[in-house]
Write a structure and sequence with these properties.
The complex is a heterodimer of chains A (501) and B (318). Chain A is an alpha+beta fold and 501 residues long. Chain A has 4 domains: 231 residues, P-loop containing nucleotide triphosphate hydrolases (Rossmann fold); 80 residues, Elongation Factor Tu (Ef-tu), domain 3 (Beta Barrel); 108 residues, Translation factors (Elongation Factor Tu (Ef-tu), domain 3, Beta Barrel); 55 residues, no CATH class. Chain A contains 13 helices and 23 strands. In chain A, the strands form 4 sheets. In chain A, strands 7, 8, 9, 11, 12, 13, 15 and 16 form an 8-stranded antiparallel sheet that branches. In chain A, strands 2-3-1-4-5-6 form a 6-stranded mixed sheet, with helices on both faces. Chain A has a 6-stranded antiparallel beta barrel with strand order 17-21-19-18-22-23. In chain A, a hairpin with a 2-residue loop joins strand 18 and strand 19. The longest helix of chain A has 17 residues. Chain A starts with a helix and ends with a helix. The N terminus of chain A is likely disordered. Chain B has 318 residues and is α/β, with parallel strands linked by helices. Chain B contains 10 helices and 10 strands. Chain B has a 6-stranded mixed sheet, with helices on both faces. In chain B, helix 2 packs across helix 3. The N terminus of chain B is likely disordered. The chains are: A alpha+beta (501), B alpha/beta (318). Chains A and B meet through helix 3, helix 5, strand 2, helix 6 and strand 9 of A and helix 2 and helix 3 of B.
């Protein structure tokens, strides 16, 4: 509801990136918490920025500040505590002076509360960023006004976009160190806008700020930047949208079956998309059984409807076989079911993701065996996908093919973050080794399967002649089948195969 | 809720007595219920750590919601140091009966055998034996493979980095440097025999959220959270409640009376009161919103040294 002003500005392309700032909707506390991720290296002042947010929204209490003073015996030149110490909660980090993992911070204003995933800027940032970004609605990307847009910032933006974040804030920090120069700010924000648009992100707000001095963070900069009339960071966050309950059909991944008495059987889970009401016809996947919704039960009352995000107990009008891991869906707009899917994933552990190895895949409440075949890997420095069929090492982002032993049920991540996301678990270590996002379903003949016995190829005639004239081919000629046809005939066969004939 | 209402299959719409939750609290509630159901479905022997405090009260309420119309499908475990406030134990027993809960209370036998008290052995050693070691004993005895706790990430710096499913080795150790990545709301519950998971459904709640939820849902809590005229002694800069005969006055100490209340509840000799006139939920929340010190400030055990919570957690403390 508070989002209207921000979304309306999506197409703004002026260099100053000033949002048409509508009168803030009086939201009171009736908004969901906004989850955000901050990306930037230590040098960009990320810890200072988060510390400043916590400090100026009064999320840091006196005794915590006193502990900081005691521990560090130092403060910055504004008489404030060293914010990095406040954030780096673990002893190892304090000792080494680095941030090693994702931490979550909480602060709120009168209008809204916020959850910040605070991730380190250097070592293993891909893995930690992916973790933090998986739940984020918005990414704040930091740039040092003196340095401009660095490759690091582009990498962070690329990962954030890949994880499905569609709202960016570019915080051009340390603007005081370039004498509040408007031209410098506009150059950096222009470059960033161009880049973000190329990633498919259209909601971009750029803000010149000094986190150290607290300018344009919670309080506006006032006299130092009379040329900047846009929102402060906190105003932008207050008006940002929570990643919407995705459009599309009803989805209820069944977490457990509740049978407190002989006559009651309810299916418990969190609605992962769409809505449902008593009387609706639904299908249970993967079995395909159809039933009608009889009741939506919650502790408080029997409800007339449930929407995405609601944790409910669903009662159906007939005895059907439903167990944990099944998905109850609307008859319209059903998800994809099948044995083969395409996905993008982030490799999270030192062993990497090995081709052909059998992993556990968990998505929603369903866990099943899968084998993974890498296809390509994202080169973060250029943003290009390079062919890559071998192990995807830690921090690599890859496109892969997934093959299941039992029917799987997915939406694309683009359509539904809850039913399109998954993790991979290594059965040898039980550790979480990858986070992934479904991009498409593949036909049963959609490509070369590692475990397949035969390979069907369509080749240009001249290349086929070359192969057939080889000695190796001649030796095994008896084992092959060859048909000649036109290019369009071949294309038709493959497109049919890919759509699961 | 009595089970009889279930037998009819048709669950009658109860009279709507309270307004719907605001979206912020609703989102937190939904997330917590999701975690409860996921853990209950994935683990063989879950248990819920119940400390009787306000966070535990919220946790229990959420558990009842998550499994309604069924019973809470796991026991509650209270690690009883025998030094809790008297009103806490009364409250605990009342709640267990009222909601038909399986309550397991465990006390480390070393406490009695070796005469370990917070007065004689210092807070650090006492806490290690009567809380951390006791918890390990109880978890081992019950062979629990998952334990719900009411910890929140906003409480303390090392909590801020803890996962919602927090993996523990067979000897209950937490290794903050090697936590499993946790993406979306897809939790990895795969463990080997002997290993366990601590699950934190309230991870994303703040102290204000807890209070506002208690108010919105009308959740019963121990009366010590509300200001009243109570006897206390001042010791080491803390106001210690003076109603237990085991509290011996030291030279120069006198029992005073005043309007005090507690922001957190633990063992009475280690928990400091605050001066307050907030005698109901509205006043407590109002007080909280202008508070300038954190709730753990009254806890002696957090003050031993910086990073002391992380140290205790590594050793198996919640």
């Amino acid at each position: 509801m508070t989002a209207t002003a921000t979304s309306a500005s999506a197409g703004t392309s002026s260099g100053a990136t000033i949002l048409p700032f509508a009168e803030p909707v009086k939201a009171g506390r009736d908004t969901r918490p906004l989850r955000l991720i901050t990306c930037g290296s230590v040098d960009d002042g990320k810890s200072t920025l988060i510390g400043r947010l916590l400090w100026d929204t009064k999320a840091v209490k006196e005794d915590q500040a006193a502990t900081l003073h005691r521990d560090s015996g130092q403060q910055n030149d504004l008489g404030l505590p060293d914010f990095a110490l406040l954030l780096d909660g673990l002893q190892a980090e304090r000792e080494q002076g680095i941030t090693i993992d994702v931490a979550y911070r909480y602060f709120s204003t009168d209008r809204r509360s916020f959850i910040v995933a605070d991730t380190p800027g250097h070592e293993q940032y891909t893995r930690n960023m992916a973790t933090g970004a998986s739940t984020a609605d918005l990414a704040v990307l930091l740039a040092d006004a003196r340095a401009g847009l660095l490759e690091q910032t582009r990498r962070h933006a690329t990962i954030a976009a890949l994880m499905g974040i569609r709202q960016f804030v570019l915080a051009v920090n340390k603007i005081d160190l370039v004498n509040y120069d408007k031209a410098i700010f506009e150059k950096i924000s222009h470059d960033f806008r161009e880049f973000a648009l190329s990633l498919g992100v259209r909601q971009i707000t750029a803000i010149p700020m000094s986190a150290l001095k607290g300018e344009s963070v919670v309080y506006s900069a006032g006299a130092t930047m009379p040329w900047y009339e846009g929102p402060t960071l906190i105003e932008t966050l207050e008006l940002a949208t929570v990643r919407s309950a995705q459009a599309g059909g009803f989805r209820l991944p069944v977490q457990r079956v509740s049978r407190p008495g002989e006559s009651f059987r309810g299916y418990q889970g969190t609605v992962a998309g769409g809505s449902v009401k008593p009387g609706d016809s639904v299908m249970i996947l993967p079995s395909g059984t159809v039933a009608n919704v009889k009741q939506i039960v919650t502790f408080d009352l029997v409800r007339n409807a449930a929407v995405a995000g609601d944790a409910i107990t669903l009662v159906l009008d007939r005895q059907v076989d439903v167990s944990r891991g099944d998905v109850i869906v609307s008859l319209d707009g059903q998800p994809m079911t099948g044995f083969h899917f395409e996905a993008q994933l982030v490799s999270l552990q030192p062993g990497g993701i090995e081709p052909g190895k059998r992993y556990w895949l968990k998505s929603g409440s369903r866990r099943q065996r899968v084998s993974v075949e890498p296809v390509s890997q994202l080169e973060l420095s250029t943003g290009k996908w390079q062919p890559h069929a071998s192990t995807l090492s830690m921090n690599a982002i890859g496109k892969v093919r997934l093959s299941f032993e039992e029917q799987a049920v997915f939406d694309t991540y683009e359509q539904n973050r809850a039913t399109g996301a998954f993790i991979l678990i290594d059965p040898d270590t039980n550790n979480t080794v990858a986070g992934g996002m479904i991009t498409a379903k593949r036909g049963e003949l959609g490509g070369i399967h590692r475990d397949g016995q035969r390979v069907l190829m369509s080749l240009p005639a001249d290349l086929a002649e070359l192969i057939m004239s080889s000695e190796l081919f001649a030796k095994r000629r008896d084992e092959t089948e060859i048909k000649r046809m036109t290019a369009s005939q071949a294309a038709e066969i493959f497109s049919n195969a890919a759509s699961d004939i | 809720m009595p089970l009889s209402s279930v037998q009819e299959t048709e669950i009658k719409n109860p009279p709507v007595s309270k307004p719907p939750l605001d979206p912020h609290l609703k989102a937190l509630e939904n997330e917590a219920i999701h975690i409860f159901r996921e853990v209950a479905a994935e683990f063989e022997r879950p248990v819920m750590l119940y400390s009787i405090g306000k966070d535990s009260s919220v946790l229990l309420h959420l558990a009842r919601k998550a499994f309604y119309p069924g019973r809470v499908p796991f026991p509650l475990l209270h690690v009883d140091t025998t030094w809790k406030f008297r009103e806490m134990i009364e409250f605990r027993d009342e709640i267990a009966q009222k909601y038909d809960l399986d309550l397991v209370a465990h006390t480390n036998p070393r406490g009695k055998a070796e005469g370990i008290t917070p007065f004689t052995h210092g807070s650090a050693f006492y806490t290690d034996i009567m809380k951390t070691e006791a918890l390990r004993q109880a978890l081992d005895a019950g062979q629990y493979d998952a334990a719900f706790g009411g910890a929140r990430r906003d409480e303390e710096a090392s909590r801020a980095k803890e996962r919602i499913y927090s993996f523990r080795t067979p000897d209950h150790k937490w290794d903050p440097r090697n936590q499993r990545p946790e993406l979306w709301n897809v939790y990895n519950g795969m463990i080997r025999k002997g290993e366990s998971v601590r699950a934190f459904p309230l991870s994303n709640w703040t102290e204000v959220d807890i209070w506002r939820y208690i108010q919105a849902e009308d959740i019963p809590i121990v009366p010590l959270y509300f200001a009243a005229e109570r006897p206390y002694v001042e010791r080491d800069g803390m106001m210690i409640l003076a109603e237990d005969p085991r509290l011996e006055l030291q030279p120069g100490e006198t029992i005073q009376h005043g309007m005090i209340r507690f922001r957190t509840l633990g063992c009475f000799p280690l928990t400091g009161a605050i001066r307050s006139t907030a005698s109901n939920l509205e006043e407590v929340i109002a007080e909280l919103e202008i508070a300038t010190v954190s709730e753990r400030q009254g806890r002696a055990i957090d003050r031993d040294q910086s990073g002391s919570m992380e140290k205790k957690k590594r050793e198996g403390y919640f």
